[in-house]
Design goal:
It comes from Ilumatobacter coccineus (strain NBRC 103263 / KCTC 29153 / YM16-304). The chain has one domain: L-arginine/glycine Amidinotransferase, Chain A, CATH 3.75.10. About 30% of the residues lie in helices and about 20% in strands. The longest helix has 21 residues.
């Protein structure tokens, strides 16, 4: 099992997808639905895009646990990485979500599946902190380096420092927080739209980090961990180039991203990524209207399998 790049993911396929009107206040990556698209057509396109990702990843040997969402109250359910994460040693975290309708995304059938298929030692549930207006939106708010044990976090009200400290203490990470703003001076709402940490490379929108000293510290930390640090422009971040995820397929490492993100990369950036991890791209124009892309759709499973599950998977 790769520490950084899982071979198993959880995905949720929505049947009534629509961009979330409650999150548009601080998610500048969201976009308006084209006027000529009816709601049922938007939902159908999103359904097909999720299906295409599932097919592409399974073709690469990734084990995808796909859950259906037929409800209408959870417009962002396609992004499960925000409400739970899994960790080596059998640990699971459940997170407090900022927007009320996103709290409805938590599904304990997903947790039950994890307990059934994988060795889960404990589930630490921080969601009750929502009542105190404290939020930490999972691996959207945090980009985790499982190898060097660092949690990179762009400061925002979706990444409360109190919960961040608790998480890092409970799960053995060092917090490395920083301020990140876009070209308009607006704080970037989630760290995983500006940063990807793979096994041998890191993608990062360095120009968003306003404190030059902190920026240099982050680059130094990533470089010292043996990674090739690949700088992304703000324009590339707007194309979701920072929202990628390294996985381990049957033939080695792959980096999943959207087609839009892939097209925004230069030849040099592609070559540097593919020196260690082959890019697998799927077009996600409808999903991306909601302000997230490939990384947000994938909840990586870093848990060891139960013996019975290993035997079934091998068969």
């Amino acid at each position: 099992m790769s520490l950084q790049a899982p071979s198993v993911v959880v995905m949720v396929r929505p049947h009534h997808f629509t961009p979330n009107v409650e999150t548009v206040v601080d998610n500048v990556f969201q976009a308006d639905v084209p006027a000529d698209l009816r709601a049922d057509r938007v939902a159908a396109l999103a359904f097909d895009e999720v299906t295409a990702v599932v097919d592409a990843l399974r073709h690469e040997g990734i084990d995808v646990h796909l859950f259906e969402d037929a409800g209408t109250a959870t417009p962002d359910s396609v992004f499960p990485n925000n409400w739970f994460s899994t960790h080596h040693g059998g640990h699971v975290a459940v997170y407090p979500m900022c927007t009320p309708n996103r709290r409805l995304e938590r599904r304990y059938d997903v947790i039950d599946m994890l307990k059934s298929e994988f060795r889960v030692q404990d589930v630490i549930d921080y969601s009750g902190l929502e009542h105190d207006d404290l939020f930490l939106e999972g691996t959207g708010a945090m980009v985790l380096d499982h190898l060097d044990r660092v949690a990179y976090v762009a400061r925002s009200h979706r990444a409360d420092p109190i919960i961040l400290e608790r998480f890092c203490t409970n799960f053995g990470f060092e917090p490395m927080a920083f301020d990140a703003i876009d070209d308009s001076g607006v704080p970037i709402y989630h760290t995983n739209v500006l940063m990807t940490v793979g096994t041998s490379f890191a993608l990062i929108g360095l120009d968003t980090i306003s404190d030059r000293r902190r920026r240099d510290e982050i680059v130094e930390r990533l470089t010292e961990s043996g990674r090739d640090v690949i700088a992304l422009s703000n324009a590339q971040l707007g194309e979701f180039a920072g929202n990628a995820f390294e996985l381990t397929g049957r033939h080695g490492s792959i980096t999943a991203m959207s087609g839009r993100a892939r097209r925004s990369l230069t030849d040099d950036q592609v070559a540097r990524i593919e020196a260690s991890s082959r890019i697998v791209a799927v077009d996600l124009p409808t999903i991306e209207l909601a302000g997230g892309s490939m990384r947000c759709m994938l909840a990586g499973i870093h848990l060891p399998r139960r013996a019975a599950a290993v035997a079934v998977h091998a068969a």
